[in-house]
């Protein structure tokens, strides 16, 4: 398999999950600004939508969209229990979290990372994100991870929570979220993925 990624982008989530899964894969770095691969290739030829991540399977098939990719990876190694079994309420809860993270938090960051977006509008988006992170924090009370045990949803939340430091969204008041972040940083998969992407020395 081959994972197309941008350092620290949302593709870090499937990168972490691939390492949790113990599956063999290659990394291909993509510039999210120029949409070129590290060898100068046109990334739009890989993904016409232009975004990372893309998981290319050994048969040439490609999967886009992080929440879909992490569930696919989890289903390849069911014994690792990276996501609950398909068809269960627990799996639906996992999908519920992945959908919330992608639609309400991930996309909430988009205006803040956009240099052409009016600065005087950005406080509204920061406040909206803080309210959403506050709700996530409340759901973590009394549990180590979003579903109780580690799942692919936690990898996604961890990556999104990293972004606040770059755009003025201070999540430090959220103790339960901070505790989850600490547990995630202690995982070998997270450290290995971040080192491979140049995010940790």
UniProtKB/TrEMBL annotation:
<protein>
    <submittedName>
        <fullName>Glutathione S-transferase</fullName>
        <ecNumber>2.5.1.18</ecNumber>
    </submittedName>
</protein>
<dbReference type="InterPro" id="IPR036282">
    <property type="entry name" value="Glutathione-S-Trfase_C_sf"/>
</dbReference>
<dbReference type="InterPro" id="IPR004045">
    <property type="entry name" value="Glutathione_S-Trfase_N"/>
</dbReference>
<keyword id="KW-0808">Transferase</keyword>
<dbReference type="InterPro" id="IPR010987">
    <property type="entry name" value="Glutathione-S-Trfase_C-like"/>
</dbReference>
<comment type="similarity">
    <text>Belongs to the GST superfamily.</text>
</comment>
<dbReference type="GO" id="GO:0004364">
    <property type="term" value="F:glutathione transferase activity"/>
</dbReference>
<feature type="domain" description="GST N-terminal">
    <location>
        <begin position="1"/>
        <end position="81"/>
    </location>
</feature>
<dbReference type="InterPro" id="IPR036249">
    <property type="entry name" value="Thioredoxin-like_sf"/>
</dbReference>
<dbReference type="InterPro" id="IPR004046">
    <property type="entry name" value="GST_C"/>
</dbReference>
<dbReference type="InterPro" id="IPR040079">
    <property type="entry name" value="Glutathione_S-Trfase"/>
</dbReference>
<feature type="domain" description="GST C-terminal">
    <location>
        <begin position="87"/>
        <end position="201"/>
    </location>
</feature>
<dbReference type="Pfam" id="PF00043">
    <property type="entry name" value="GST_C"/>
</dbReference>
<dbReference type="Pfam" id="PF02798">
    <property type="entry name" value="GST_N"/>
</dbReference>
């Amino acid at each position: 398999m081959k994972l197309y990624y941008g350092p620290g982008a949302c593709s870090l989530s499937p990168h972490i999950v691939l390492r949790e899964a113990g599956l063999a894969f290659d990394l291909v770095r993509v510039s999210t600004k120029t949409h070129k691969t590290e060898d100068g290739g046109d990334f739009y030829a890989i993904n016409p939508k232009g975004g990372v991540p893309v998981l290319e399977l050994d048969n040439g098939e490609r999967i886009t969209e992080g929440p879909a990719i992490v569930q696919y990876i989890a289903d390849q190694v069911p014994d690792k229990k990276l996501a609950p079994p398909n068809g269960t309420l627990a799996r639906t809860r996992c999908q519920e979290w992945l959908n919330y993270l992608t639609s309400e938090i991930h996309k909430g960051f988009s205006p803040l990372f956009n240099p052409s977006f009016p600065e005087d509008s950005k406080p509204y988006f920061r406040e909206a994100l803080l309210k959403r992170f506050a709700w996530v924090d409340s759901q973590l009370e009394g549990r180590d991870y979003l579903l109780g045990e580690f799942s692919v949803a936690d990898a996604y939340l961890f990556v999104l929570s990293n972004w606040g430091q770059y755009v003025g969204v201070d999540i430090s008041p959220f103790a339960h979220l901070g505790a989850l972040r600490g547990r995630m940083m202690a995982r070998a998969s997270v450290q290995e993925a971040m080192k491979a992407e140049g995010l940790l020395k």
